[in-house]
Every structure is written in C-alpha cells, then in structure tokens.
Amino acid sequence: NMLADKDVEVAHLEKLYAQRVEAIIQIGCRVDDLVTDPAYAAQVNRVAKTIPFIASGKLDGTDCYSVRIDHAQSMRLVVDHLVSLGHRDIALFGGERRVQSTFEKYQQYIYLLGAHGLEFRADYVLEGNYADSGGYECMNRLLLHRYRPTAVIAINDYSAVGAMRAAFERGISIPGDISIVSFDNTFLSEAVIPKLTTVDYDYPEFGKILIETAIRATGASKPPKQQFVSPHLVLRDSCAAFGG
C-alpha cells in the first residue's frame, strides 16, 4: 500500500527529527516521485533548518542535498551503443513515468532519437511495471507489431528477463533477431542466457558519496547541493549489429 508506506515515511522522519540525529539520508520513496508532494517538502524544510538532509533523488522546493544517478547519461550510453550497431528501430518499455528516474530516461530517449535522425514512434514506447511480468507483457505486444523493432531497451534487468522469456516462447532469437539492453546490472544480468548488456550505476560509489556528503554537511566544509553519479555500460551478449 503506497499510502501506508508514505505514512510510515513521514513517521520515521518525525522520529529522526525528534532524536536530533546529526544528518538524515533518504533513499527512495518520496525522492523518486516526479512531482514532489508540497506537504512533504514543507516537512523536509522544517527538518533541514537544523539537520542536514541528503536525498538520493530530488525533492523540489526543499533545501536539501541531492546525490543522484545521472539517468539522462544512462540512456545516452544505451541509445548511442545501439545506434553504433546499426539499429534504427529502437523500442523502450517498462516503468512508470510518474517516477523521476523513468521519466528522465523516457525524455532522453525521445531527445536522442531526434539527435540521431531516427523516427519517434509512439507505439514503440510502452509503460509497464518494474518486474519480469511487465517486460514479458510489453515484449509480447512489440513482437505482434507489424514492424517489429530490431532493438529494445528495458527499464531494468527484471523487465529484460521477462522480455527474453517472451521472445524465447515465440522462437525469436536474442540477439540474432532482436537486441536487448537494460539498466541496473543486477545479478540477473549474468544469470540469463544470453548475458545482458546493461548499465551499471556503481552503487558502492553512490553509497560512499551519500555518506561523505552527510559527514561534510555536518562540518565546516559544506558539500555541493547537487551531485551526480556517472553510470557506465557493461557490454555482454544480448546486443548484436543489425543484420550482422
């Protein structure tokens, strides 16, 4: 229950504020929202007046520190790689655009298609969930398309695994018939066949920057208000040259 989760989140924030902790790091939940809840922003600002508040995303209208993954750069890595392999019909599926990281990826996907001179097709862009079931459903819809894409971008590794299962059931070869690339570089990326080409976010470095930001924020040497963690593309076996 999302509402219940957010109620718990508010209660935890109030508890930490009452305990007068030295700093607060928030990972996920409200900081993943595309549109920040004004009431929560006001609550964070009340806390941030006396306790440094570090978010792993963005909270509009707040005076907090932000350490974020560069999701636009993540999509650039993926699209540039597929275009370099000769792909021109590239689909994107999975995730909900009310989530900031997903919205940024979708925006960048549209921009990059134009930058590469590729046609944007609304029917190549499918929202779904973040689980393998969503990837399975989206891939089945794309495979029924009259003009099937030659490459697909899955919103995460779980979606990609579901998509691969859908392709396998229909006798579609990956990467022989369709290339697939995803995000997160989870354990799944090396557990499936073919192994997934995916974007790695360097979570150990991400965590290190969050902690260092919290420590600096409590001292005299204040950190930047906004910092980005740079992703990199891990090349494996799920992408091939178009026609190759």
Compact overview of the structure:
With 244 residues, the protein is of the alpha/beta class.
- Return Rg in Å: 20 Å
**Spatial order of the strands forming the largest sheet:** 5-4-6-7-8-10
| Low-pLDDT runs | none
Q: State the major sheet.
A: 6 strands, mixed
Summed over residues and divided by their number, the pLDDT gives a mean of: 93
Number of strands: 10
Give the helix proportion (percent range): 40-55%
Q: Enumerate how many helices there are, as a single number.
A: 8
Oligomer: single chain
Strand content: 15-25%
First-to-last CA distance: 47 Å
The helix-and-strand class reads alpha/beta
The arrangement of helices and strands along the chain is HEHEEHEHEHEHEHEHEE
Principal-axes shape call: elongated
Supply database-style keywords.
single chain, 244 residues, alpha/beta, 6-stranded mixed beta sheet, 4-stranded parallel beta sheet, 8 helices, 15% strand
Descriptive report:
The chain is of the alpha/beta class and 244 residues long. The chain is 42% helix and 15% strand. It is built from eight helices and ten strands. A six-stranded mixed beta sheet has the order 5-4-6-7-8-10, sandwiched between helices. The mean pLDDT is 93.
Fold blueprint:
Blueprint: H1 2-18, E1 24-26, H2 38-48, E2 53-55, E3 65-69, H3 71-84, E4 90-93, H4 100-115, E5 125-126, H5 132-143, E6 151-154, H6 157-169, E7 179-183, H7 188-191, E8 197-200, H8 203-217, E9 226-229, E10 232-234
Helix pairs in contact: 1-2, 3-4, 5-6
